[in-house]
Automatic annotation (TrEMBL), chain A:
It comes from the Bacteria. This is DUF1800 domain-containing protein. InterPro entries: DUF1800. It holds the Pfam family DUF1800. It comes from Wenyingzhuangia fucanilytica.
UniProtKB/TrEMBL annotation, chain B:
Pfam families: DUF1501 (PF07394). This is Twin-arginine translocation pathway signal. Signal peptide: none annotated. Transmembrane segments: none annotated.
Length: 455, 396
């Protein structure tokens, strides 16, 4: 397979590729490479942390103090889970599944300060990431954390709560403008009683509305499952998901012709894996106009750098601050619409931070970051965190591993994988001035170029 | 130094002989935007308890709902015979007595959301309760008039959503010197020096380069323009005091910046509210008084409007831990010497007519306040920025 195409493929379904893997994989054909990716992504490794400390608190008697302890411990464990997620991405063996999980986490957006529910929710994402979209939507609709997050627990026959029904259509399946306010009201009735206890779906029939509903032109005694099936019958649903996948994996500027082709494949049986296979083997996926045109998300940037320069943070908290400052902290989406992505990652401050990142990490330099402040912190804590914010980034770099990686490689190998071959003359002039005898310095310099922000 | 001179000088200094075309475009800013008016927005994060800030101390319902956390009548600093301030706000009372303060009651929006994050987003993006926007109202202001990043400064290290536009965003400048150092990192400069207009025409990569140039030019502008002035005023020794001090030094250095954004946290008073809220009000009031006096001494207060808001108010009834839970409508302060109607602007909060959660109902949409500030103070078109029309108020 053509090396340029292989780099593009791994930029999109992974976090870049190293020269040694590029050599290895380029011996195989495109189809072989895609089959390889799909096969490697068959297993499902759950994302979990040790929650025994939480269990001890749960066993205590119910008091306000216990409530506060639970909140604090959940926050701490979610931070652990955040680090664990990064660890898994850094050492991913199920690359396509992991990348798709990130995509779905920004599609079926949900967040609560609850470690057990979060782990369960992430498992739903991972399990269905390459599975059947109907099963996926159904499982998400019954997920306890989602029930809570979008208030379906409060959706009762006497007092319907429309929040879930609205977002199901607006954000998860159809997109704005493809249903009426009446459709929202009617489908909300169908989801009444879809509730849950802590980690289990519960159908509460005494608050379910068993009456007749009219939804998207159909009439019947619908429940939530019927609503999902009617939604999936709409051609718009496959188009909506295809467009979102296209913008994430192919090009932020949609191409109607290609998206229609995708939707046709997807609608057959809503198999996500087949859709991805179609996209990744399409000629247009490898066209020059789709290469290096997307701005990396902070996750793509951080994991991408980590693959080249294996680093760890001395303190997890500093790593969390860094994610916060870059504008994407995993498990903490801004709202149910998720991170808007692409250009919205960038402002004057984040671009300076992004360009400094590789050299700061590699040289174990300090960087000034804004600490996150929880709303419930009192002013003294707030003030203290602000004051102590200086010099927060301390990394440990595994140079031995790095030296392994650069064995038998030269500067141009790294230039090819890190910033691609389609470069502007001025950028080429700049690169010429960098010392190419020292591969380490060279890689750091390349990762400090705006071109490295693209994938 | 005129902006044109500055651009030419700074581009010479950085070795950029050609000012890129998109920077040149900034010189076509409509004239009226180059006015002197400044807006300082102060966000109280966590949901400030408005009823213990502007206290309805003649209202029995207030004392009935809050047997443990109300401010005793005897301690109230009276405002208009009905409403008053807690003693911790005596500095704020000084500003009020000079006619610099307008208190707008019952500010909120339809279908109030009681989540901090979501409600803060709604305020920052001026959206409806069920609408998700990815750019802020002040970012939209920059976008609508093709302003440079430094025209809206977040006095913080991370840019607030309020200042994020679609194409142009404000800049976070908690420490101008550090910002300048970052923007003048040798490699960063080298990359900028090697760009050409061809780079800028590429869709997303071009956007990155533009943001870099913007970062460098705005960081240099802020640093060079503000380094000569040092405030002598005695600000409270905390992060909020530092932010106000920095803001005053920017304003008193006559930066052309139109908008400053400052935030203070710690307002989520679910338990042991009395002492915590007292400290918060103290810090807020003292900070504001020093800030206003600092501006007055430099003759810049006349061109400054300060707006203080919080993402929501708190429940009327106290909870079981001597605190209050998340509420809805709240009061909002406007501080300037140009008020048309100083004092209490509108109806007092109605404690007898609450919503189903036991929260105050809103009477004025917060976007009416924004629309008024945009049109009457910043001389901008509110419809263009907020996306819809809102009735104006008459405080300025």
């Amino acid at each position: 397979m053509n090396k340029k195409h292989l780099i593009h493929l791994y930029n999109r379904v992974g976090f870049g590729i190293l020269p040694k893997d590029l050599d290895e994989l380029s011996r195989f054909s495109l189809d072989e490479n895609i089959q390889h990716l799909l096969k490697k992504s068959k297993p499902i490794t759950p994302l979990v942390v040790n929650t025994s400390t939480l269990q001890e608190i749960i066993a205590l008697k119910n008091t306000d103090e216990k409530k506060r302890m639970l909140q604090k411990e959940n926050r701490r464990l979610l931070a652990d889970l955040n680090s664990e997620w990064y660890h898994q991405l850094n050492h991913s063996t199920e690359l396509l599944r992991d990348k798709m999980t990130l995509f779905w986490a920004n599609h079926f957006v949900c967040a609560e300060n609850d470690i057990l529910q979060t782990q369960q929710y992430l498992l739903v994402l991972k399990k269905n990431a390459l599975g059947n979209f109907r099963d996926f939507v159904l499982e998400i609709s019954k997920n306890p954390m989602m029930n809570k997050y979008l208030n379906n627990k409060q959706n009762k026959k006497e007092h319907p709560n429309e929040n879930y029904a609205r977002e199901l259509m607006e954000l998860f399946t159809l997109g704005n403008g493809h249903y009426t306010e009446k459709d929202i009201k009617e489908s909300a009735r169908a989801f009444t009683g879809w509730s849950s206890n802590k980690t289990k779906f519960v159908f509460r029939k005494n608050i379910h509305d068993f009456g007749t509903k009219t939804f998207l032109g159909k009439t019947g005694k619908f429940d939530g499952t019927d609503i999902i099936d009617i939604i999936l019958e709409q051609p718009q649903c496959a188009l909506f998901i295809s467009e979102k996948i296209y913008k994430e994996f192919v090009n932020p500027t949609p191409n109607a012709k290609h998206i229609t082709q995708m939707a046709k494949v997807f609608r057959k049986n809503y198999n996500i894996s087949e859709l991805m296979e179609f996209v990744l083997t399409a000629d247009w996926f490898y066209e020059d106009k789709n290469i290096n045109v997307k701005i990396k998300s902070p996750v793509e940037l951080l994991v991408g750098i980590q693959k080249v320069i294996p680093y760890t943070f001395k303190k997890d908290r500093y790593f969390q601050y860094l994610q916060f400052n870059l504008g994407q902290k995993l498990l903490y989406p801004p709202n149910v619409a998720g991170w808007p992505g692409n250009k919205q990652w960038i402002d004057a401050n984040t671009i300076m931070l992004r360009l400094k990142l590789a050299s700061t990490i590699a040289q174990q330099k300090e960087i000034e970051l804004e600490p996150e402040v929880a709303f419930e912190d009192d002013f003294e804590t707030f003030n203290k965190r602000k004051k102590n914010k200086n010099k927060l980034l301390f990394t440990t770099v595994d140079w031995k591993e790095f030296n392994q990686q650069i064995k038998n490689t030269n500067a141009s190998d790294w230039q090819e994988v890190l910033i691609g071959s389609n470069l502007n003359q001025n950028t080429l002039d700049l690169i010429k001035k960098i010392n190419t005898n020292n591969i380490k310095e060279f890689c750091i310099a390349l990762m400090s170029l705006p071109e490295y922000q693209m994938c | 130094m005129k902006r044109r001179d500055f651009l030419i000088n700074s581009s010479l200094a950085s070795g950029m002989l050609f000012v890129p075309s998109f920077v040149r475009a900034f010189e076509n800013i409509p004239k009226k935007l180059i006015g002197h008016k400044k807006l300082v927005v102060i966000q109280l994060s966590g949901g400030n308890d408005g009823l213990n800030t502007v206290v309805p101390y003649r209202n029995d319902l207030y004392y009935k709902n809050r047997p443990n956390i109300s401010i005793p009548k005897s301690e109230i600093l009276n405002l208009n015979g009905e409403l008053g301030l807690p003693p911790s706000m005596s500095s704020f009372k000084n500003l009020y007595d000079q006619g610099y303060v307008s208190i707008i009651n019952n500010v909120g929006y339809p279908n109030p959301v009681r989540s901090h994050f979501r409600s803060a987003d709604i305020w920052q993006t001026a959206s409806d309760a069920n609408e998700y926007k990815s750019s802020g109202w002040l970012g939209n202001y920059l976008d609508a008039y093709n302003q440079e990043a430094h025209m809206a400064i977040d006095v913080d290290n991370k840019l607030s959503l309020a200042l994020k536009g679609k194409d142009i965003s404000g800049i976070a400048a908690f420490d101008p010197k550090l910002l300048y150092r970052n923007a003048n990192d040798p490699f960063f400069k080298k990359v900028i020096d090697h760009h050409m207009d061809e780079h800028l025409s590429e869709e997303n990569l071009g956007y990155l380069y533009k943001q870099m140039i913007q970062a460098e030019s705005s960081a240099s502008y802020i640093f060079n323009k503000s380094k000569t002035y040092q405030s002598k005023a005695d600000y409270p020794k905390n992060a909020f005091g530092k932010q106000l001090n920095t803001t005053a030094s920017f304003i008193n250095s006559h930066l052309e910046t139109k908008v400053y954004y400052v935030s203070m946290g710690g307002f989520d008073t679910h338990f042991a509210e009395i002492n915590r809220h007292k400290r918060l009000m103290n810090i807020l009031s003292e900070g504001l008084e020093v800030f206003v006096n600092d501006l007055k001494q430099n003759d810049t207060f006349k061109d400054t409007l300060i707006m203080v808001f919080s993402e929501f108010g708190r429940r009327v009834e106290e909870n079981g831990s001597n605190g209050t839970d998340h509420g809805a409508a709240n009061n909002l302060f406007l501080i300037t010497e140009n008020l048309k109607k100083p004092g209490i602007y509108n109806n007092h909060p109605n404690l007898a007519d609450l919503d189903s959660n036991g929260d105050l109902k809103y009477e004025i949409d917060f976007r009416q306040v924004y629309a008024t500030v945009l049109e009457k103070w910043l001389e901008a078109d509110p419809k263009k920025i907020l996306g819809q029309n809102f009735d104006h108020l008459t405080f300025i």
